[in-house]
Amino acid sequence: KARVSKCNNIILIGFMGTGKTTVGKLLAQRIGYRFVDTDQVIEQEVGLSIPEIFLKYGEQHFRQLEKQAIRRILTRSGMVLATGGGAVMDPANFSFLKEKGCVIALDASENTLWERLKAAKDRPMLFSDNPREKMKSLLEMRRPVYYKAHFVLPVDGKSPQEVVDDIIAII
Length: 171
Ligand code: S3P
Prior knowledge:
Blueprint (H helix, E strand, L loop, with lengths): L8 E5 L6 H12 L2 E4 H9 L3 H8 L1 H15 L5 E4 L8 H10 L1 E6 L2 H8 L13 H16 L4 E4 L5 H11 L1
Parallel strand pairs: 1-3, 1-4, 2-3, 4-5
The protein binds shikimate-3-phosphate.
Shikimate-3-phosphate binds next to α1.
């Protein structure tokens, strides 16, 4: 099979709502890689949704599950992996991901993210009396970390297909 990319795996990182899952699925279809989503793997394994896992076991436990899932998933190649928005806040996770593939950060403005996330009920990190402020402070804390990816790709105003085209030009 012809190699379509020098990247053994393509790993999408970035804040909630940047489109990692949507773009990842489309990209995988386009280049014939397998799509995997860490959150989906964790949900299947535990048999609970992400918000249920946070509620029942807490964030710290979720982070342990996430760390284990990332290590288990990336024993193979030919994969497009969508990670959870907090996955790379653990420096060990981030360096592991960078060893295993090309890490692309999807980057959106605060306004774009809020438009996409304000109605979401499935993002426990934003459960707060003031979710807008919570989002802003999380984003400010995390953005400098996302910028350490191999590539940073702005997504504001782009359709998922356009983001996929941009990624294909990079990889
Ligand atoms: C999280 C993002 C979520 C999910 C969990 C925690 C975060 O994934 O892993 O709710 O800390 O940013 P998405 O980025 O796919 O929403």
